[in-house]
Amino acid sequence: MRYPVVLFDLDGTVIDTGAIILASMRHAAETVLGGEYSDAQLLAAVGGPGLEAQMHALDPSRVDELVRVYREHNEPLHDTIATFGGDETTEHKPHPAPLLLALERLGEEPANTAYIGDSPFDMQAAKAAGLFAVGVSWGRIHTADKLSDADVVVHEARELLDLV
To answer: Are residues 108 and 75 part of one domain?
Structure first.
């Protein structure tokens, strides 16, 4: 079965990282290159093929230094990241409540929905909610054998194209 919508981006979708990404881009650009940059200039390459490519867009000759300064600024901010909707239910994964709330807000039925996750808790929540559970092993946090509750386990993102 094909599922109409599958979303599994992290930054800016599951966790609210937009402000710290912009702050770190600004810090790196102004520290390494000097001058002032608009939000549009700094965010033009964000969400693309990776941090190096984003910094290449700012200055191809200083990518390594830009990346280093960005990371020095960005990593301490990780403790300030807020989740979107992570605490809107009293029950949390592996309980299905967060997934059922999402379905309610989307006006979707469990039978029409695939849930992609990388932990046994994700798979347990998906199954408890009646969703098609897709376990992914590429994050290397949980091995494929820990995703035994999944309907299917995939090891590369391209495998998702045949499933959802």
So the answer is: no
State which of 26, 46, 80 marks the end of a domain: 80
User: Cβ neighbours of residue 132 under 8 Å, at least 6 residues apart?
Assistant: 1, 3, 113, 114, 115, 126, 151, 164
Tokens 């808790």 identify what position? 121
The total number of residues shown for the chain amounts to 164
Half-sphere exposure of residue 79, counting CA atoms within 13 Å on the CB side?
A: 2
Q: Which value, in Å, is the radius of gyration of the alpha carbons in the chain?
A: 19
Euclidean distance between CA atoms 36 and 25, whole angstroms: 11
Domain containing residue 123: CATH number? 3.40.50.1000
Higher pLDDT, 87 or 95: 95
Structural domain total, the chain: 2
Range with top average pLDDT, 2-11, 62-71, 77-86, 94-103: 62-71
Q: How far apart are alpha carbons 60 and 46 in whole angstroms?
A: 15
CB 160 within 8 A of CB 6: yes
Phi-psi region of 85 (alpha: psi -120 to 50; beta: other; left: phi over 0): left
State pTM to two decimals: 0.60
Largest distance between two CA atoms of the chain: 53
